[in-house]
Design brief:
With 197 residues, the chain is mostly helical. The protein folds into three domains: 33 residues, no CATH class; 72 residues, Helicase, Ruva Protein, domain 3; 35 residues, no CATH class.
């Protein structure tokens, strides 16, 4: 078992594989937790005054200890490949910790996220191609993405398309089988008659 006073990597005699795995997992949790002890991972580099533990980009708080690409993928609507494309378009080092990114670089990242096609990111990488209202390729992130998704579903319901009907009934939309799965929210089973009645 992991004892808080000992090193998380100390190996005892007669441990099972499961105990070693549990110890490794707890060691990882120890270094990933939000306390200042993880500064030792990067040494004096983290203790410099230019480092920020929380960086706000696109109305999302990002962990400053993560690398730039990994941190950007925490924004809703930005995956790992798109995060790499954004860092290349902004001209930043993807292996840099996001806590060391300057305010000017943050502004540049937000500008690329607002209009990625303008910065040379191909149209097939954006998440809203040929928007129904404007006909343009655009990329939505955060609450804008959630709002647009809800608006699209409401539009399908309003025109009573197949997808809209399935959404309104709470059933599966994409052609999956429903005989055995998707039974949440309904009474399942057979009711028995009361004896003596």
């Amino acid at each position: 078992m992991f004892v808080s006073g000992s090193s998380p990597f100390a190996r005892g005699c007669g441990e099972t594989a499961r105990q070693r795995l549990n110890k490794t997992y707890k060691a990882l949790q120890y270094f990933r937790c939000g306390d200042p002890r993880r500064r030792a991972i990067w040494g004096a580099q983290v203790s410099s005054s230019s480092f920020r533990y929380v960086v706000r980009i696109a109305r999302t708080d990002l962990d400053g200890t993560l690398k730039l690409e990994r941190a950007l993928s925490d924004i809703k609507g930005v995956g790992q490949r798109f995060a790499r494309a954004v860092t290349q378009a902004a001209g930043l080092n993807p292996d840099q910790r996001i806590g060391f990114v300057t305010d000017a670089d943050v502004a540049k990242i937000e500008e690329v996220l607002k209009d990625p096609v303008k910065f040379g990111i191909p149209g097939w990488m954006v998440n809203r191609r040929k928007d129904m209202a404007t006909g343009q390729d655009k990329h939505l992130v955060g609450s804008d993405l959630e709002f647009q998704l809800r608006t699209d579903i409401d539009g399908f319901m309003k025109i009573k398309s197949w997808r809209g009907v399935r959404h309104s009934l709470g059933l599966k939309v994409r052609g999956q089988r429903t005989r055995a799965t998707g039974r949440t929210g309904r009474a399942v089973g057979v009711s028995r008659k009361k004896e003596g009645a």
